[in-house]
Amino acid sequence: MWVLAVFLGCGEATIPGLGLVPSSDARASAGGALAEPLVQAFSGDVGGFVWVRGIDDADAAGVEINVYRGGVSTRACTGTTRCYLTSRFASVQVNDRATAWRSERIAATPINLSLTPDRTDASWWADESPTLTVGADALPTLLRVHLSQTVGTDPMWYLDRIQTWVPWPVNLSDDAITLPPRRDTAVTTYTASVGMAAAGWDIEGGAAHHPVLLVDTSSVDVVNLGFTWGWGDLHAHSDLSHDGCRDPASDCVADISRVGMDFFDSAIDEGLDFAAITDHSSWATWSEGGGSTDTIDIWDRTQDAVTDTLAAHPDFIPLLGYEWTASAPHPVGGYWPGGHRVVFFEDTTACEEARLSVGVSLSTHSYTKGVDGAVLYGGTPYHAVSYTDLVDAMDTAVADCGITGRVQMVPHHPAYRPPAVVDWANPDNVPDSRYTTVVEIYGEHGSSECADASMRFCNWRQKSDADYLGLGGYQTALALGYELGVVGGTDSHDGLPGTIHNDPSCTAIWDPDTSAVRCQDFKGGLTGVMVTGRLSRTTLFDALFSRNTVATSGPKLQVRAYVRTTDNQIAIPGDEVTAADADQLVVSVEGLVDGSKWEHVYIDLIDPTGVTLASTEDEALDLSLATIAGDVLYVRLRLYATGDTEGERMWLSPWFFN
């Protein structure tokens, strides 16, 4: 154990013994005094010291200190017993002309300092405390170690810049150093240096004095990702939907006083941080059926569920929303090209005009669940036929109704003919960045990742080719130049948001041929967000609009993924990066799968055409971006438990290189 301390000077009378092996000539007399001079030497990559004990400074006029480098002898210092060498040396020989004493060649004890982070990817989130270990073999007690930091690209030249050598942090007393969490998104260079104050030492060749004389240094870059995580479900239905049903076996009967009100309890029970209630906007009122004439306004009840949950669970973020369905007048190529959107608000309340319905006018049409189950009535006078109409109508609602927060419109199941595909090439579907910055890449209808369903790994939880249309794939949107991130949702219809560990949810729709309840296709997904500071409603929407998101079919791994630039800045998934500045791409699951059920974890780096540019089963993918071409790159993780050939997936939003 040695001490990391502050250099406050090193007086001649207080210099302790170096603790090194003396030369064979050096021996002590019976009285304890040195019978002959004792030469001690140690050297590092930066410099070294030679100290001759047993010759008083007053008698040192004839002392010559010669060092050997590469077999060549150099006279380093004369007339002194303490010599600082300006670079590494192998051995030393000392002559004293006054007494005709000459030492043997003494090998310098090597000093090799190391500074090692406890993570090989050297990256930490904002709420984590990195630990650095400083190590050295045979470190003399004479020396002191100093730990300092440099943020960004500002160089650290101790001998030129440091006038007072003060360590950071102060009072280090162990070789394992835990640093405080940091929130700035930059690279910090930590440097450990070993040496001593210059007082009392001559310098080889008469070089200029510096306040601090160093023997060795070791530096490590610590990546301060500067974000914290949150997990949630951005797409789920309650009994307020015409196809939402907690209990199909009982004809979807629900209590009118509680319908919709228990929706967020499931997400809280699942340990999620946020969830959106996104019932279909096709209906305006709800009745519990069974002959009852009592009704409730669906939009009012939805807002009640949000505000009541917020009051009872202030640390949870309930989101007000609905699902909008495009309603083109006729199919194109056998499908309706407008798709579906889940719409949710940063505000906790919103006017009726903000709840846009399918492209039908207000009417008295109704829908009955099962046999004598709940009945939904009417529509809404506020409707939109296409995504473009939806955006225009929302603009009007925001202007007229005092909506102050942001609104997100997320396309979901975009690659599936039924329920409704999103034709990304259709001008009506060009994303408006004021409202749409992310796509639901996975939910209970399956994965919508690929433009070409036949490409490797693209058939994961994907319906048949007859249902899957690559024109709605996420890769197709990227290839068209749309800067969209990824999210996941359950699209559950059982009023249980966040439940991705059970079977696919069932709906309130019965198959007319079999009279069986129609259930969804796959288990659903979730969304992860990387936020600055504390997760809140504001930072959640910041992350969504910055695309700092991941989608998952289940695993909630806080994957460390970043692009490092030449000026030591960090870009996380979803960020835009100047291509000329991009230097290194790192994706790491180090420590996240240790002891977990995941036996195999693959990291794939993919471009918008679906080509896998790099793939590894190691815990980290570390690439020089000079070898990677492409304007957009995103990451897919494939995780497999023992004996599981299907596995699970995570997708990270792309980096966009401008």
Count helical runs.
6
Output mean pLDDT: 86
Oligomeric state as shown? single chain
Q: How many strand units?
A: 42
What is the SS-derived class?
Answer: mainly beta
Any low-confidence stretches, pLDDT <50, length ≥5? 1-33, 154-173
Can you tell me the overall shape? elongated
C-alpha-based Rg, rounded = 34 Å
Q: Report on the biggest sheet.
A: 12 strands, mixed
Distance between the termini: 50 Å
Residue share in helices? under 10%
Strand content: 25-35%
Description:
The two termini are 50 Å apart. With 658 residues, the chain is mainly β. 9% of the residues lie in helices and 34% in strands. It is elongated, with a radius of gyration of 34 Å. 47% of the residues are buried. Strands 18, 19, 22, 23, 26, 32, 33, 36, 38, 39, 41 and 42 form a twelve-stranded mixed beta sheet that branches. Strands 9-1-2-5-16 form a five-stranded mixed beta sheet, with no helix packed on it. Strands 3, 4, 6, 7 and 8 form a five-stranded antiparallel beta sheet that branches. Residues 1-33 and 154-173 have low confidence and may be disordered.
